[in-house]
């Protein structure tokens, strides 16, 4: 006698067997490395917090007419603009320079969104934990906002009439006053970050995960900066030329280090490759405003000439440079200023990078 049994289920064991039972799919766990190419977009949000830091007043001195003046570092901003406007008021003129202070001591930078693409190289540490290095290039960047650009243009445009008005009251000749501006902006940002990914499951085709880590941001191309350059030159009554220049650089300086948080989901098309959707939030501090001021009083004339206005306060122009501390000084003879933080940003800036990509296990 024979006993026959058919259609008996085959025993299975292990994680791969469990996966096959769940959906007939088993990932290739022997391949620990992963490479990915992805693309997407970056959306940025900036904090409005921060505190201003105004420039210090210029050093006072007496002109050759024994009237008060001050040694300033720029006519565009700070005490120099206040001095020039006060002189025009003393003359009875309506011309005023629009001070750059309104831009320099506030949040001048505005984040802009843009597309992104990048590469990832990862390695499995355990069945649920993986380490990953990501390099992303994003067209998103920091730039001057509309209000800041309007303020920069107002300072540039009002320099010429404000400086021309008092000079035209003197008996000078060949007067020329110019004011120019230029604004640079980055081409994008490079994100280089390292994260740890924690998988929320380790079986099946769909593997959700969360991420955390840190990295650096590097601006590509020129950093956001506005340059104002003013110049006036003339020949004073004795025939001696005087030529002075005033340069202001206002830069937006964002932090270089970021924290990273996010997550996503992998979909395995086959045991060795698949698709991934990912969202990452880059978190850093708000941007600062930085100032460089470069006054260039006349220093090329072989003849000595000094000219001062009969107003209180007074403007004084000098055709020569001297190391003698008791020699006459131009009003535009204040110290050079380098990397002055006129606005200290506070709060958090966040940039959200949404990407979709394809990965390979090897």
Spatially, the strands of the biggest sheet line up as: 1-6-7-10-11-14-15-20
Strand content: over 45%
Q: Find the structural class using helix and strand composition.
A: mainly beta
Number of strands: 20
Mean pLDDT: 90
Tell me the count of domains: 1
Q: Which ranges are low-confidence, i.e. pLDDT below 50, for 5 or more consecutive residues?
A: 1-22
Cα Rg: 32 Å
CATH class reads Mainly Beta
CATH topology: Porin
Major sheet, described briefly?
A: 8 strands, antiparallel, barrel
Give the number of helices: 4
Helix content class: 10-25%
Note the gap between the termini: 55 Å
Do you know the CATH architecture? Beta Barrel
The shape, in one word, is rod-shaped
**Strand/helix succession:** HEEEEHHEEEEHEEEEEEEEEEEE
Structural commentary:
The chain is mostly beta strands and 362 residues long. Residues 1-22 have low confidence and may be disordered. It is 14% helix and 49% strand. The chain contains four helices and 20 strands. It has helices at residues 14-23, 79-91, 101-104, 146-167; strands at 33-45, 50-52, 59-62, 68-71, 109-112, 114-124, 129-138, 141-144, 173-184, 188-199, 206-220, 225-235, 241-253, 257-268, 273-285, 288-296, 306-308, 316-318, 337-345, 348-361. A hairpin with a 4-residue loop joins strand 6 (114-124) and strand 7 (129-138). The chain has one domain (30-361): Porin, CATH 2.40.160.20.
